[in-house]
Structure formats: structure tokens, C-alpha cells
What does this fold into?
Amino acid sequence: MKFIKQRMIAGCVSPVHTFNEVIASPQVSARQMLQNIPQQTNSVQHPGIPIKLSETPGTIRSQAPEHGEHTKQILCQFGVKKK
It folds into this structure.
């Protein structure tokens, strides 16, 4: 433990944060890393785009599919017929 504390003081090692510590971080807020994405019944907080480009910023354009939302389409592509 003494080794790690010495390295932290020297700036060579940083602490490992929990998920709750990460989302509460001022840097996460300042970089707009958490975005509310509308779903059909509510909105979900989702990690944003990590790379911020000034002229071509990335965006989240659609929500993740619901469980089983595309099952019929995919099965049809593989020739599985509805019974």
C-alpha cells in the first residue's frame, strides 16, 4: 500500500472509481458524457459520445431496440417462416 500511495503522490497512479463516483464526477458533467435518451415509455440515461469533434460532433440518433423488437425481421432474412 505504501508503494501505491507514493506513486499517487507523485502523480503516477490514479484511483479506480466506482460507477457512482464516475457519474457524479464534475468532468463527466462538463463533457456532457451522460445523455437522456427517450424510449417508448420513459427516458434512459446513457453514456454519450466520448470523442468531441468541433466540426463534426457525434450524436446518438436513435434508441436501442427493445427486447425482441427485430426478431421477426431477422428470422425472415434467414428464411424462417411464421407458423
